[in-house]
């Protein structure tokens, strides 16, 4: 099945004291899912929130799809608590584990989809042996840890490689994505788009989401017509 286009705002740079209201605002603006950045102060030099916050947020937005971006050193430790808190997808970093198949199994047993992320310094070839285990591959387009960084264009060949070899795979990009580079992301083959600052700070977030969706939709259609 051809991948579908989805836009998932990251709430990292939103007013986190208002995380529920911000989430509702983004969903009402057309977000397809919410990308929730979990940082442990060890895998990355920053701290955010964990499963207790996710559990509370779930009660406020019962229908939303939660894509957990787990920037943590022990991803296996949080699988069950996140599943119980209401997470839908658990995206861990390849760099944080030696047991990709074990953790993927655990995620599925907890009723979630499996996402595997790679940092900018990790070659795409390292993810290849694990693709069959994953529902989604996340190509980081900044160093994980902070919102508001500049997009790394030199990560796009990783996306192109994956799209060429895995036409049905969900491929997500995350970090510095905005209207200036959405066409490049879409043409490379990304179909799941995470955007924080560019959506959160927009005067009309709905317009940014619609423009991004259109860009990805057109690129996916073009590939489909060319086949
Ligand atoms: O995972 C991360 C950062 O580590 C991202 O999800 C960013 O937080 C997205 O924010 P922008 O780069 O779009 O501002
Ligand atoms: Fe993220």
Description of the structure:
The protein is 35% helix and 18% strand. It contains eight helices and eight strands. Strands 1-8-7-6-5-4-3-2 form an eight-stranded parallel sheet. The chain is globular and about 45 Å long. The mean pLDDT is 97. 5-O-phosphono-D-xylulose binds at residues 10, 12-13, 35, 37, 69, 142, 144-149, 174-177, 194-198.
Produce the secondary structure layout.
Elements: E1 6-9, H1 19-28, E2 34-39, H2 51-60, E3 66-71, H3 79-85, E4 89-93, H4 100-109, E5 113-118, E6 136-140, H5 156-165, E7 170-174, H6 182-188, E8 192-195, H7 197-200, H8 205-226
Parallel strand pairs: 1-8, 2-3, 3-4, 4-5, 5-6, 6-7, 7-8
Bound molecules: 5-O-phosphono-D-xylulose and fe (ii) ion.
Concise overview:
The protein is an alpha/beta fold.
What distinguishing features does this structure have?
single chain; isomerase; binds fe (ii) ion; 8-stranded parallel β-sheet; 227 residues; metal ion binding; Ribulose-phosphate 3-epimerase; 35% helix; alpha/beta; carbohydrate metabolism; binds 5-O-phosphono-D-xylulose
Number of strands: 8
Number of H/I helices:
8
Which molecules are bound in this entry? 5-O-phosphono-D-xylulose, fe (ii) ion
Please estimate the helix content. Answer: 25-40%
As residue ranges, the low-confidence spans are none
Tell me what portion of residues adopts beta-strand conformation. 15-25%
Please state the CA-atom Rg, rounded to the nearest Å: 16 Å
User: pLDDT average, as an integer?
Assistant: 97
The SSE order reads: EHEHEHEHEEHEHEHH
Strand order, largest beta sheet:
1-8-7-6-5-4-3-2
Question: What class, by secondary structure content?
Answer: alpha/beta
């Amino acid at each position: 099945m051809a991948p579908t286009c989805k836009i998932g705002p990251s709430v990292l740079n939103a007013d986190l004291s208002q995380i529920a209201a911000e989430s509702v605002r983004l969903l009402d603006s057309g977000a397809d899912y919410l990308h929730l950045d979990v940082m442990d102060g060890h895998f990355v030099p920053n701290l955010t929130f964990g499963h207790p916050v996710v559990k509370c947020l779930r009660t406020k937005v019962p229908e939303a799809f939660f894509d957990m971006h787990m920037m943590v050193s022990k991803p296996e430790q949080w699988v069950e608590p996140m599943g119980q808190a209401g997470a839908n997808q658990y995206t861990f970093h390849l760099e944080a584990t030696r047991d990709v198949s074990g953790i993927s199994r655990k995620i599925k047993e907890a009723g979630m989809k499996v996402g595997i992320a790679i940092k900018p310094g990790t070659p795409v070839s390292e993810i290849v042996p694990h693709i069959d285990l994953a529902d989604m591959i996340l190509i980081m387009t900044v160093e994980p840890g902070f919102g508001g960084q500049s997009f790394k264009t030199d990560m796009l060949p990783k996306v192109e490689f994956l799209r060429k070899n895995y036409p049905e795979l969900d491929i997500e990009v995350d970090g510095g994505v905005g209207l200036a580079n959405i066409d490049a992301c879409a043409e490379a083959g990304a179909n799941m788009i995470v955007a924080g600052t560019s959506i959160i700070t927009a005067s009309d977030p709905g317009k940014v989401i619609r423009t991004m969706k259109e860009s990805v939709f057109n690129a996916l259609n073009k590939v489909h017509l060319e086949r």
